[in-house]
Write a structure and sequence with these properties.
5-stranded antiparallel beta sheet; 93 strands; mainly beta; about 0% helix
Length: about 1200
């Protein structure tokens, strides 16, 4: 979870702001001593307090070692270590060798200023950049934690959580794990789909749901103050999240966008207004001051219209030290903004631009009133207040925030209360006011209201003694004249106590309800309104919860249903029998569902069940006990039951101990349980990671911890069911899990061994005789027996440890050694020499032309000697790495001298080369980040490399006009400006083979054969025909023709009526090599049927026709069809065997009869018919 406090560098403000009278609470607040406010550094992901500089020297004797220098870090054996968090962070080293900055000291840019002496600029003191990168971080459960993230005490930060209302549900938009998470939910908050968008720049600014599009703001640092550098990018997406355009703000007097502030947007037609903050270019006092920034974009073509980013006056909308920003367009097209000012002015400044919203520039006069005054000096970077909302009603502009009592002792107060301000819209006249100062001079001011009609009021009255304070609130507009104001209760130091409060307001800021207080949380998700309810979501690292406030004051929550899996749920037994004498019964229930569990009884006159599943027995009989699990985040609702028999039985007693204590590593032992009446005992284990238990009660210790074993005695004819819970406690740790280290860097002499070794467990150095006994060990010495090569120690665990171990270690070399660095598409793979006597290692990296190395990784075990750097995976650049072993001596961390540097540089990773169309090869490779384009090279039949194409933008290219049968080998280089990446020297190869054959069809050529046809392929020397058998293609034949007749055979049968599937591939021959083309995996299918017969003759007679027809091979008979009509009304006569004629009798006299004949063949009792003969007709006599 991020913190919205920040490191501040303070300079004395020059000009005093106008101080307005400040109201106090109606109820007096107890004046108590409070702790001094803690100002905490807010580092970006991968960034910590400064690290000591260091210098990389060439390895002795290595003349080819690269000349690498990391300025400012010494090789002292007593380098001070920072916290664990600092050690693992990204470290940037000072450019001075003797910087004098130990771990934990201020970086130069964080130093406190002596003051601001520029009379011309309203700047006040410097605010450091709130450069929070990466967004929320997900837990092991894959969920973020955004609880109370709307709250800030000094300066705000961009909101990461958003909810939008759609016609068919909601979108959740959240910046998490350096990606933008997009989740679509139905109206009942069941997740429908999820996707993630990559960050386009390093800093996230905000999200806005427009009428017809979505907008995302990204930003990046501009420490070099380049006017051409893009500092903010606004991206437009359609409602299906397709990226359709972007606008850029460049330079803009900005070094750090969104610094110490938020970002909000307002839409009017095709214009979007963005209000945020920025750290500005360095001024003459050497500081980077902070102020608000306003940007106007035409969204129809994503063109920047205008922006206000320079140092100017309040009369143009400028606020120095703007800690939070709001903007809206009201129903009169007025552009209204609210800023939390710390310097010029101090307090809540509500203002309105003279110009109304349009596609013209918004710049011009800005009419503003200080609607809430913060006491104190300008630019001290703390105001004792925060702002949480700006809205408008039919009559008023409303703002909301929290604040301490703003009196002379304001900085001593710790408790904050909720306030609102109400400004009459009718009094906002946009009229300048002239004031005569002397006969020859006057001033012009630009107040928001001429009558000063803004009123303010406290909503809450928490006292210092109550221990309760109010968080930054959220103001939600329910309708044109109805609002709800929400805040979280905190302990006064920004930590939520798990309760929220809210109150309803009308359009003039009057409360229309009492204050409601409920168990729950707010988040940085600004509530949206749907169905008259204010809705937001909260995440806690394990789940996402939907919160709703109804217009009646009701508050409800439910989990977001991210999946609808069927849960696993069961009772230990499907049926249990108990004695009424027992009074209660217990049947343990388990489920993997994340829903809520409830229980019920089918007959409460027999048994009742409480919320925990415990059953109270009331009378004899049988009933069902049901567990119901409601729908949760991932699982659907479900119920399961068991049958409970309550009988008049004797009470069962299980005999044995109800607790055991043992040590990790102890032998198996038996619980030794017995019971009455020879009942069967069963065992259930709640914590199988600690112990396991067999069906006979034998326990095996597995880990340190506490386990509960449920022992159940089944009911008998005489005795009831019995139960006993047994607690097993496993303690201590095996001493062999610890590590022997040296507590100094460099050689160790014979007489100095024991003062320079230690046993360590994690980061804790164990104490001899408290944690272990050392029984001595072995020693190995080097030249002249002066210096130790390796030591072995026999130790025995005591106290919190158990067991004995032999631990070995070697002295830590004064200089570490880097072995290799290899670039891969998944990251740079590093390896280094093991230092068995060290605690672990620090890895450092330099990219391209960087002048210094940065610490990027801490390895906490000395036996780990490899690691993959994935930060720049697949990205263009040259990377240099070095390593330093580290150890500990008491509270100090000691580092070896920096190793030699090894480098690696990227090259596109080739994937494949595939022949296409008989005259081309398609080459594909892994995309390489950071390159402008690619160059493809080839060589033919082993010749030298030649360029095939350049300016390739995609990660694939099809090389055409190639020679069939030749082999082509390819490699690729990335291009960045005038530079080229390395390339794969071996390349990837492919022969140009014939294209896939265009298949024709399969037709029957008789009862036992089919004919295949296909299109002739240019350059083909022949064709291979395949038949599919058992799901696999089997070679059938080869031919040089474009057709083939497949005749039935034992190996490749052709059975009447049964389809066969075929495919064909072309082949060519070149250089005594046969090459085969691709083929259709689908193939073509056809089946053999009886051949077509023909009518030989039709001989009429009285009321009859004699029909003769030609013989067809392999048939079982013939079917004769006849009708008075050619196209309908046919009757059929079947002739079996080899008869080739039949007489149609009982026909009408002197009528034309149409006749047709077809053969059939019977296979497995099923007839398969061939095609009908041509129709003939004859008139009867």
């Amino acid at each position: 979870m991020r913190k919205k406090s920040m490191a501040v560098a303070v300079a004395i403000a020059l000009t005093a702001g106008t101080v307005m009278p400040q109201m106090t609470l109606a109820d007096s607040f107890a004046q108590e001593d409070v702790q001094e406010l803690e100002v905490q550094a807010d580092f970006s992901e991968g960034e910590t307090a400064d690290d000591s500089g260091f210098e990389i020297e060439e390895a002795d004797g290595d003349e080819n070692a690269p000349d690498v220098e990391v300025d400012g870090e010494t090789d002292s054996e007593e380098d001070n270590a920072g916290s664990e968090e600092q050690q693992e962070g990204l470290q940037t080293f000072s450019s001075e060798e003797e910087s004098g900055l130990d771990d934990g000291s201020l970086k130069p840019e964080d130093a406190f200023s002596d003051g601001d002496t520029d009379e011309e600029l309203n700047l006040a003191g410097e605010i450091s950049a709130d450069a929070v990168r990466g967004g929320f971080q997900t837990s092991a459960n894959g969920e973020s934690d955004n609880r109370n993230q709307q709250d800030y005490s000094t300066g705000s930060a961009p909101s990461y959580s958003y909810l939008t209302v759609e016609q068919d549900g909601y979108y959740r938009v959240e910046y998490v794990d350096d990606k933008l998470l997009i989740e679509k939910y139905s109206t009942d908050f069941t997740r429908q789909f999820s996707k993630k968008l990559d960050s386009e720049l390093e800093l996230f600014g905000g999200f806005y749901a427009g009428k017809d599009a979505y907008y995302i703001a990204w930003g990046q640092m501009n420490w070099d103050e380049e006017d051409s550098k893009e500092v903010i990018r606004l991206i437009k997406y359609d409602k299906n999240w397709n990226r359709i355009g972007a606008a850029s703000l460049r330079g803009a007097n900005t070094t750090a966008p969104f610094s110490a502030g938020n970002l909000r947007m307002a839409e009017y037609g095709n214009v979007l207004y963005i209000r945020t903050s920025h750290g500005m270019y360095t001024t003459d006092d050497g500081l980077n001051h902070q102020a608000n920034l306003t940007w106007q974009v035409r969204t129809s073509d994503m063109t920047s219209i205008d922006s206000c980013h320079e140092i100017t006056n309040q009369t143009e909308g400028y606020v120095s030290h703007s800690f939070n920003q709001f903007i809206l367009i009201d129903d009169q097209a007025n552009i209204v903004a609210l800023d939390h000012g710390d310097a010029y002015p101090r307090g809540a400044l509500l203002g309105m631009y003279e110009k109304t919203a349009s596609e013209n520039s918004f710049r011009g006069d800005y009419f503003a009133d200080l609607v809430w005054v913060a006491q104190g000096e300008e630019g001290v970077n703390y105001t004792g207040m925060s702002l949480g909302g700006l809205e408008y009603s039919n009559s008023s502009y409303l703002t909301a925030g929290n604040s301490v009592i703003q009196d002379a002792n304001w900085s001593d107060h710790n408790t904050r209360n909720i306030f609102i301000t109400v400004t009459s819209r009718s009094d906002c006249t946009k009229t300048p006011v002239e004031e005569q100062i002397s006969e020859d001079s006057y001033t012009i001011s630009y107040p928001l209201t001429l009558k000063g009609t803004t009123s303010s009021k406290w909503i809450t009255s928490y006292s210092e003694s109550s221990g309760i304070s109010a968080s930054t609130p959220e103001l939600v507009k329910l309708s044109s004249d109805a609002f709800v104001l929400l805040w979280a209760q905190t302990n006064g130091y920004g930590e939520s106590n798990g309760k929220i409060s809210y109150v309803f307001l009308d359009g003039r800021g009057n409360t229309t309800s009492s204050i409601y207080t409920k168990n729950g949380y707010l988040s940085d998700c600004q509530p949206v309104v749907s169905g008259g309810k204010a809705i937001w979501y909260v995440t806690d690292g394990s789940k996402m919860t939907i919160c709703r406030i109804g217009s009646d004051g009701s508050f409800e929550t439910e989990p977001a249903h991210k999946n609808s899996y069927e849960p696993e749920m069961k009772f230990d037994s499907n049926e249990i029998t108990c004695g009424l004498v027992d009074g209660t019964a217990w049947n343990p229930f388990s489920t993997n569902s994340d829903g809520k569990v409830s229980y019920s009884s089918s007959d409460e006159s027999i048994a009742k069940v409480d919320a925990n599943g415990k059953v109270s027995l009331l009378s004899t009989g049988t009933c069902k006990i049901t567990a119901h699990v409601s729908a949760g985040i991932n699982y659907a609702a479900k119920s399961v039951s068991y049958t409970l028999h309550v009988l008049d039985l004797k009470k069962q007693t299980i005999h044995g101990k109800n607790s055991f204590k043992c040590a990790y590593g102890d032998s198996k032992f038996n619980l030794g349980m017995t019971c009455e009446g020879n009942a069967v005992l069963t065992y259930k284990n709640d914590t199988p990671n600690v112990v396991s238990v067999s069906s006979k009660g034998e326990v095996t210790v597995k880990a340190v911890g506490t386990a509960t074993i449920h022992v159940i005695a089944t009911a008998t004819d005489t005795y009831s069911r019995g139960a006993l819970d047994i607690k097993i406690t496993v303690s201590k740790k095996d001493i062999s899990k610890t590590q022997l280290i040296f507590t100094k860097i460099g050689p160790v002499k014979r007489d100095d061994v024991y003062q320079n070794i230690a046993v360590i467990d994690g980061d804790r150095i164990l104490e001899e005789e408290t944690d272990y006994f050392n029984w001595g060990g072995s020693y190995y010495y080097g030249y002249q027996d002066d210096y130790l090569l390796e030591i072995g120690q026999d130790i025995e665990g005591v106290g919190n440890y158990t067991g004995e171990a032999e631990l070995y270690a070697s002295p830590i070399n004064e200089r570490s050694k880097m072995n290799s660095a290899k670039f891969t598409s998944k990251g740079n793979q590093l390896s280094w020499q093991e230092e068995s006597g060290a605690v672990g290692y620090y890895i450092y990296r330099k990219v391209n032309n960087d002048s210094t190395y940065k610490r990027i990784k801490k390895i906490t075990r000395s036996n780990i000697t490899s690691w993959t750097d994935t930060e720049y995976a697949g990205t263009m650049g040259t990377y240099a790495y070095c390593v330093r072993a580290y150890t500990r001596n008491g509270d100090k961390e000691l580092l070896a001298k920096t190793s030699n540097a090894v480098t690696c540089s990227p090259q596109p990773v080739l994937k494949s080369a595939v022949s296409q169309n008989g005259n081309a090869v398609k080459v594909t490779w892994e995309p390489l980040k950071g390159v402008d384009s690619y160059i493809l090279y080839y060589r033919k039949n082993g010749s030298s490399w030649k360029e095939a194409a350049r300016n390739i933008k995609d990660a694939s290219y099809t090389h055409t006009k190639l020679t069939l049968g030749d082999q082509y080998t390819y490699t690729v280089r990335g291009v960045v400006g005038n530079q080229k990446t390395d390339y794969n020297k071996n390349g990837v190869s492919a022969y140009v083979v014939p294209a896939a054959v265009k298949l024709g069809k399969v037709t029957s050529a008789g009862y036992d054969r089919v004919k295949l046809t296909w299109t002739k392929m240019n350059g083909a020397a022949g064709y291979v025909i395949y038949i599919k058998q058992n799901g696999k293609w089997t070679k059938l034949a080869t031919t040089t023709n474009t057709s083939y007749i497949h005749i039935n055979s034992k190996k490749f049968p052709v059975v009447t009526g049964r389809g066969n599937t075929y495919t064909v591939r072309a082949m060519c021959r070149k250089n005594n090599k046969t090459l085969y083309g691709s083929y259709s995996n689908t193939g073509i299918t056809g089946k053999a049927m009886p051949a077509r017969t023909a009518i030989s003759s039709l001989n009429p007679s009285k009321n009859a026709l004699a029909v003769s027809y030609k013989k067809v091979a392999g048939v079982s008979g013939y079917q004769i069809a006849y009708s008075l009509y050619k196209d309908k009304g046919y009757r059929y006569v079947t002739v079996s065997g080899n008869r080739l004629s039949t007489t149609l009798k009982n026909l009408a006299s002197k009528k034309n009869y149409f006749v047709k004949v077809r053969a059939y063949r019977t296979v497995n009792k099923k007839r398969y018919y061939g095609a009908y003969s041509p129709v003939k007709y004859k008139k009867t006599k």
